[in-house]
């Protein structure tokens, strides 16, 4: 799996998209305070959790109908639009909308990337394969918030954080357009092994 372009492309997509979601999740209380003058950041954390749960269910169903790649691209584009729009979120209702969309698109990642990994690389080594893919989430979760902190320290605000994250999400969407599933031997190998074991 790790010798394929598809793995590394998915890995980069996962890292960029997880980073964007985790930046908002990690900073939502401060964002609400800075941009909206609100001291109720804990409520936005709850909204993120609600969006997260809903996003997993909805995008899982959508991807079964239109395909994993198409759904991932839609999620990345929606994430990018939301990140650009965060610059303008300065009131309670706007921040509520932004938090729910962030939660939903972040939750979508945790439904779509395991399913895509299993679809593309088979179930034979699914635990190990997704464990390797999931390292992208860890890298995104480490690098994204640290990058955000440095940019905020340098600029005094979140605007550039949103812009950089949105650009990375558009890169992820671009990778989604050019990355196709590997040849079917991964799936065929699993089927053959199961038949042989009967």
Automatic annotation (TrEMBL):
Name of the protein described by the UniProt record: MFS transporter
Gene3D superfamilies found in the cross-reference section: MFS general substrate transporter like domains (1.20.1250.20)
Keywords attached to this entry: Membrane, Transmembrane, Transmembrane helix, Transport
Annotated localization: Cell membrane
Main location: membrane
The organism of origin for this protein: Paracerasibacillus soli
Residue spans crossing the bilayer: 7-29, 41-58, 70-89, 95-118, 130-148, 160-178
Coiled-coil regions, chain positions: none
UniProt-listed PANTHER family: RIBOFLAVIN TRANSPORTER RIBJ
Keyword Metal-binding belongs to the record: no
Positions of the Major facilitator superfamily (MFS) profile domain: 1-198
Membrane topology designation: Multi-pass membrane protein
One Pfam family named in its UniProt record: MFS_1
